[in-house]
From TrEMBL:
The keyword Oxidoreductase applies. This is NAD-dependent succinate-semialdehyde dehydrogenase. Residues 19-479 form the Aldehyde dehydrogenase domain. Keywords: Oxidoreductase. The active site is at E256. Belongs to the aldehyde dehydrogenase family.
């Protein structure tokens, strides 16, 4: 299948309503992970350009914050409509630079669009409150105001939806935003900016800084005093660095960080449902999702049957370029991702895990890895504690409810967890006992714009999506009126 793209493929960054290049002419290559071919060259901007974007956002904020909620909502709805109108083009561009199957890419684009629609509606619901006064001479109330300039640092695994989760509530709240997309996937961010421009969003309200110098540019975004909030999606180690930088000027910070999701299957679970749920949770986007299943815990009475049935389904998965309609699993994002996952698999096998399927780099190309199934895994192995980010399933055996809750919680991460059981009492007990921000019960796909997305412990701070997702872009101001 030949990939086609049109005017949404931009090879310039977007600052203050203009398409710009680097002052020194520096560019960075965007590579198709499926075949290693060059897709585009985009500007490699430095710190000075990041400052220019921040300044533009700050100037725009002075007027943008005074626009009405209904006016901002109208622009967001227009942006949403343009994304839906260009869904096929955006999906092809996403697959081209990120690698995921085209049908998954299309699903991501539509998911991203839903956040713009949702926050167009929530823009009009940022209510304050009247507070019963403690004195007849005063009146007490609160209002919510936009926090200011927002810096958004986004990852490569969902290069459209992760921007939507941040830009939509920020703009709905009356903030302006500077986006630094991942080096591997800048084209999706630039395409969204092109549609924002077409929707009529004013110059400076949204800015996109492309760079191959993420440390320098990221430091500027996180320490510049004008930036009042940082929203980051990525690894926990990088998130800790960003939190430290943001603390220097006491910025509000939202962190959606790493995960180590347990997928717990009890003896009384519906076997076919559990297998299907584990499969979609684990192998979506080649396992490169922060909420994908990392550890599959199966109760002893169902263990052998689950493994046999799951293996059958894993071996049906087809590797290939995301542009091929028959592909289930595309490439990993880069060579180091393949080396990491292969190293973890090799180490687990040396430590006693059993290889049931896959276990090697694939013949389709240097960035492909076989869908892999390891059994007899336990917590003494490094693979039990790593965020895999690859198409590898690890299956653990357990006996009791109390045991599996303790083992599932024995991680510094707390993003997502999954439970399969037909016992409603057990479902409640386990869901409440798991130390995770999100729990899927008899369901492997749990994310949408209606619900709060985020974790606990070292998996993050704050929530994206739902009515709660706009809160981190607002300041709550208390007003005491005397002399009444």
């Amino acid at each position: 299948m030949t990939m086609h793209y049109s005017n949404l493929k931009r090879e310039a960054a977007y600052i203050n309503g203009a398409w710009v290049t680097a002052d020194d002419g520096a560019v960075m290559a965007v590579i198709n992970p499926a075949d290693g071919k060059l897709i585009a060259n985009v500007p490699d901007l430095g710190v000075a350009s990041a400052r220019a974007a921040i300044d533009a956002a700050n100037v725009a904020f002075a007027s943008w914050k005074h626009t009405t909620a209904s006016a901002r909502a109208a622009l967001l709805r227009r942006w949403h409509g343009l994304i839906v109108e260009h869904v096929d083009e955006l999906a092809r561009l996403l697959t081209l630079e990120q690698g995921k199957p085209l049908r998954e890419a299309k699903g991501e684009v539509l998911s991203a669009a839903s956040f713009f629609e949702w926050y167009a509606e929530e823009a009009k619901r940022t209510y304050g409150e009247n507070i019963p006064s403690n004195s007849p001479r005063t009146r007490l109330l609160t209002i919510k105001q936009p926090i200011g300039v927002v810096a958004a640092i986004t990852p490569w695994n969902f290069p459209i939806s992760m921007i939507a989760r941040k830009a939509a509530p920020a703009i709905a709240a009356g903030c302006t935003i500077v986006i630094k997309p991942a080096e591997d996937t800048p084209l999706c961010a630039l395409a969204l900016a092109a549609l924002a421009e077409e929707a009529g969003i004013p110059a400076g309200v949204i800015n996109v800084v492309t760079t191959a110098r993420p440390v320098d540019v990221g430091r500027e975004l996180c320490t510049h005093p004008v930036v009042r909030k940082v929203s980051f999606t990525g690894s926990t180690p990088v998130g800790k660095v960003i939190l430290g930088l943001a603390a220097q000027t006491v910025k509000k910070a939202s962190m959606e960080l790493g995960g180590n999701a347990p997928f717990i299957v009890f003896d009384d679970a519906d076997l076919e449902s559990a297998v299907a749920g584990a499969l979609v949770s684990k192998y979506r986007n080649a396992g490169q999702t922060c909420i994908c299943t990392n550890r599959i815990y199966v109760q002893s009475g169902l263990y052998e049957r689950f493994v046999a049935r799951y293996k059958q389904e894993v071996e049906k998965l087809r590797l290939g370029a995301g542009s091929d309609d028959s592909t289930d699993i595309g490439p990993l994002i880069n060579d180091s991702a393949v080396a990491k996952i292969d190293g973890l698999v090799r180490q687990a096998l040396e430590q006693g895990a059993v290889l049931n399927s896959g276990g090697h780099p694939a013949l389709q190309g240097p960035r492909f890895y076989q869908p892999t199934l390891l059994t007899d895994v336990d917590e003494s192995m490094e693979i039990a504690h790593a965020e895999l980010f690859g198409p590898v399933s690890t299956v653990f055996r357990f006996d009791s409810e109390e045991e599996v809750i303790a083992r599932a919680n024995a991680t510094p991460y707390g993003l997502a967890a999954y439970v399969y059981s037909r016992d409603i009492g057990r479902v409640w007990r386990v869901s409440e006992g798991l130390e995770f921000g999100m729990v899927g019960v008899n369901e492997g796909m749990i994310s949408n714009e209606l619900t709060p997305f985020g974790g606990v412990k070292e998996s993050g701070l704050g929530r994206e999506g739902s009515r709660h997702g706009i809160d981190d872009y607002l300041e709550l101001k208390y007003i005491c009126m005397g002399g009444i």
